[in-house]
UniProtKB/TrEMBL annotation:
Protein name: Spermidine/putrescine import ATP-binding protein PotA
Keywords, sorted A to Z: ATP-binding, Cell membrane, Membrane, Nucleotide-binding, Translocase, Transport
Enzyme class: translocase
Organism: Fictibacillus terranigra
Annotated catalysed reactions: ATP + H2O + polyamine-[polyamine-binding protein]Side 1 = ADP + phosphate + polyamineSide 2 + [polyamine-binding protein]Side 1
Nucleotidyltransferase in keyword set: no
PROSITE patterns recorded: ABC_TRANSPORTER_1, ABC_TRANSPORTER_2
Gene name of the encoded protein: potA
Length: 368
């Protein structure tokens, strides 16, 4: 058995004459990992979930589960379970009967149902809640019931469609930890849908960033954050300072009137680029030491840091996250290391980026 549990091959989903919700998407999901589909509303992430679950059919392309094409396999025959945004619990059934519902549909023996429901509730720390009414449960408890109902059927994949969105911030953070730990204990594949970047970064083994029906970039949270492929990813994942520049040569880039050492390579000399520096990678310093000279426009206290907005002489805004304060109107210097600079080619796709690095590694940088 291969390690890939789900494969999408050139999958398109389109309704009537509207633009494609998913546009020729291909990817693979490995078993036993926590995946997140991340992107703005309408980008196609929930459509991917529905295609995997069998709630909708692809217009073009093929979907494979454990190496077998499942385009025509009905939803109730697929080894997946879905946890919905509203949990879709039955209000007239207590906790035990909500979790047992799928097992009763399968006509499982009562003794076996008792064992499996007890095990599922234990996994989500709800032992002793069997007779509790759903209306008497908190939001976090209801979510755990929904997860218990999903895992009791022993699926190979659990699909989670923004299940934390209705929770308050504190409970949402707690449930992020619980979900991640639960996935590790179960050892099965979780595919989680969210538009919350911090949630995706905190929970995932791998992230797929989507926009307008296409996967813009996939990778680990660190890959996505530190090496964004294009402006959309850099802007959507965390906060970024993005300015236009020009590549001088490998390890040297020009922007805002200066030339700066960087760690990027494989681009052509004089090629127009976009330069990304994260706010936390900018250090407030003296004008003499600063690589950039800016004037402070505003400052907000965010608890663990100050969020400082500055402008350089070219009119570029620079956002700085720092434990140091700076008075509005002050001229200050900003210092950054070469590793803080990330250079992006205009409009580069993930495949283009991979090919560029591979070509450079083999000593052949192709002209674009």
């Amino acid at each position: 058995m291969t390690n890939e549990i789900i494969q999408f091959r050139n999958v398109t989903k389109q309704y009537d004459d509207d633009p494609a919700v998913l546009d020729n998407v291909s990817f693979e999901i490995e078993r036993g990992k926590f995946y997140t589909l991340l992107g703005p509303s309408g980008c196609g992430k929930t459509t991917i979930l529905r295609l995997i679950a069998g709630f909708t059919e692809a217009s073009e392309g093929d979907i494979y589960f454990n190496g077998k094409k499942i385009n025509d396999v009905p939803a109730n025959k697929r080894q997946v379970n879905t946890v919905f945004q509203d949990y879709a619990l039955f209000p007239h059934l207590n906790v035990f009967e909500n979790v047992a519902f799928g097992l009763r549909i399968k006509k499982m023996k009562n003794t076996e149902i008792q064992i499996k429901v007890k095990e599922a509730l234990s996994f989500v720390n709800l032992e002793g809640y069997e007779t509790r009414e759903i209306r008497d449960m908190s939001g976090g408890q209801r979510q755990r019931v929904a997860i218990a109902r999903a895992i009791v059927n022993e699926p190979e994949v659990i699909l989670l469609d923004e299940p934390l969105s209705a929770l308050d911030l504190k409970l949402r953070t707690e449930m992020q930890y619980e979900l991640r730990e639960l996935q590790r204990r179960l050892g099965i594949t979780f595919i989680f849908v969210t538009h919350d970047q911090e949630e995706a970064l905190a929970m995932s083994d791998e992230i797929f960033v989507l926009n307008k029906g296409k996967i813009q970039q996939s990778g680990t949270p660190i890959d996505i954050y530190d090496e964004p492929i294009n402006r959309f990813v850099a802007d959507f994942i965390g906060e970024s300072n993005i300015v236009e520049g020009s590549m001088i040569k490998d390890y040297l880039v020009e922007f805002v009137g200066g030339q700066f050492e960087c760690v990027d390579r494989g681009l052509n000399p004089d090629e127009p680029v976009e330069v990304v520096i994260r706010p936390e990678d900018l250090e407030i310093t003296t004008l003499e030491r600063g690589k950039l000279k800016v004037r402070v426009d505003s400052q907000l206290f965010r608890g663990v840091h100050y969020e400082i907005s500055c402008y350089d002489i070219y009119g570029n805004e620079w956002l700085v996250h720092s434990t140091k304060r700076a008075a509005v109107g002050d001229e200050i210097g900003l210092y950054f290391d070469p590793e803080a600079i990330h250079v992006m080619r205009f409009g580069e796709s993930e495949a283009d980026f991979d090919r560029r690095l591979e070509a450079y590694t083999h000593g052949v940088v192709h002209e674009q």
